[in-house]
């Protein structure tokens, strides 16, 4: 396992340097390296490390969410109003409805299979979107109109909405029953997550202010708190959002002490460099290129169709009658393209449960990562300085 970790770290550093010279996002290299060195490639990654992959990806996600919360000014975000709320569920709803229509036509899926694959594909990737929005906030690009803040919040809440729907559709597909309470879990999990995270954030701020701990201890406590909150999501399934709790905890710390949040944010920015390597490398490891290519061009066409409907119907509906100009709207469209984190986490669940069409669903999830994550990341990196104003000037 130690050799595998060393291989990941060395390849990550080399790829980050190389792709930076080529002006391409490093995550593209990490994904490709994971595919080449993983069990479906050269098989150089230790099997014990692969078993730990879900936990490692979870820690990386906590680092992302912590950075997001420490960078988010909730008071200014609330000024955005309606579009920020709509971005949390409208684009995902449009994509799921598109899948419901075209799933039977493309693959002969049943209605519930189509809804299920729509839920798998609908979530925006916080692993791709959030760090880029944090960077834009820190460099004051597009912040006057709260563009990155709106995208950051929408991408985080979007995942909660999609995961609850996925759980409901999976229950139906496996022969279970779904009640009105199933869908009531969306607001319950959102409220519980925000409240729980905010309370913990307040208590941590009191601790950090009145007990002058070293910065490294503060970082360790904050990271451990995030792990506990994410664990509560699995304990209270459907009743508590760990993602929102982690963000809310760090938003509260920022609201109480901006200086403290800036210091902590600097430390987590350095941690993210290592976490990003492991996150996207291990996502690439889970990809089986042979399966992805065995279905021909039809799955790719299906993913492109769903993505276009999501962006040009769902996102545009959210941006109607808003103060954003054309350039800002184009950037919002680009930012809602990438998929990776949720698809890597739940793409294999139907297959693991023995569902008909499960292998095709996994293939669609993998292809959505390979197609949208690099394009979305490259697009955001390239267009951000061209479409968003530098508000620090």
Walkthrough of the structure:
The chain is mostly helical and 393 residues long. The chain is 78% helix and 0% strand. The protein has 20 helices and no strands. The chain has helices at 2-21, 26-37, 47-51, 53-71, 74-78, 82-86, 90-107, 111-122, 126-138, 147-173, 180-210, 215-235, 242-256, 258-285, 289-294, 298-318, 326-335, 341-346, 349-352, 358-387.
Looking at this protein, list some descriptive labels.
393 residues; mainly alpha; 78% helix
Provide a compact summary of the structure.
The protein has 393 residues and is mainly alpha-helical. The chain contains 20 helices and no strands. Helix 1 (2-21) packs across helix 14 (258-285), helix 4 (53-71) crosses helix 12 (215-235) and helix 7 (90-107) packs across helix 8.
What secondary-structure arrangement, pairings included, does this model have?
Elements: H1 2-21, H2 26-37, H3 47-51, H4 53-71, H5 74-78, H6 82-86, H7 90-107, H8 111-122, H9 126-138, H10 147-173, H11 180-210, H12 215-235, H13 242-256, H14 258-285, H15 289-294, H16 298-318, H17 326-335, H18 341-346, H19 349-352, H20 358-387
